[in-house]
Amino acid sequence: MVIDNARYGTQALPLLPASAASVAVVTSRGPLYDLDGVATVEVPVNPLATDDAVRPFGYIVEGHRLSALGSRPPAEPDAAAELARGCGGLPAALQAAGH
User: Fold this and answer.
1) Contact 64, 58 (CB under 8 A)
2) Domain check: are 30 and 63 in the same one?
3) How far is it between the farthest Cα atoms of the chain?
4) Are 26 and 13 in contact (CB under 8 A)?
5) Residues 9 and 36 in one domain
6) Is there a single domain that holds both residue 33 and residue 7?
7) E strands of the chain, at which residues?
8) Staple partner for 53: which of 25, 48, 66, 90, CB 3.0–4.6 Å?
9) Tell me, what's the pLDDT at 53?
10) What is the pLDDT, as a whole number, of residue 8?
11) 41 and 3 share a domain?
12) Range of 75's domain?
């Protein structure tokens, strides 16, 4: 099970599987300090490098203005790189900027 973008651990707790043989992945933008009584492993994810941040724009940008299928280089690579740097390589910021 994937619980995406939890703000607090208490949001995820009622959704966690009861079976010890199950696993849940809970994503958040920060640490979830209030996940009491469950085994947790924190996996920090670094911001994307500029080249890696530019690639998804073909899928994110409405109408695929920067890249028709997301696999070709962007039509405006300098603008795409500047936007990716301005977003700090953060996927949520890139998503918001693309819409």
Assistant:
1) yes
2) no
3) 50
4) no
5) yes
6) yes
7) 2-3, 25-26
8) 48
9) 86
10) 93
11) yes
12) 50-98
CA atoms within 13 A on the CB side of 61: 21
- Residue 60, CA distances (Å) to 8, 27, 36 in order: 27, 20, 36
State the amino acid at position 45 in one-letter form.
Answer: V
Count structural domains, the chain: 2
37 and 13 share a domain? yes
The structure tokens listed for 68 are 């028709």
Angle at CA 30, nearest 5°, toward 79 and 89? 15
**For residues 84 and 81, what is the distance between their CA atoms, to the nearest angstrom?**
5
| Bridge partners (DSSP) listed for residue 25 | 2
CA dihedral 60, 23, 9, 84 (to 10 degrees): -20
Binned average pLDDT, 10 residues per bin, the chain of 99 residues = 92 90 90 88 90 76 50 71 90 81
What is the token pair recorded at 48? 């994307």
Beta carbons of 53 and 93 less than 8 angstroms apart: no
Report the alpha-carbon distance of residue 27 to residue 11 in Å, rounded: 11
Provide the pLDDT for residue 73. 60
Both 67 and 93 in one domain: the answer is yes
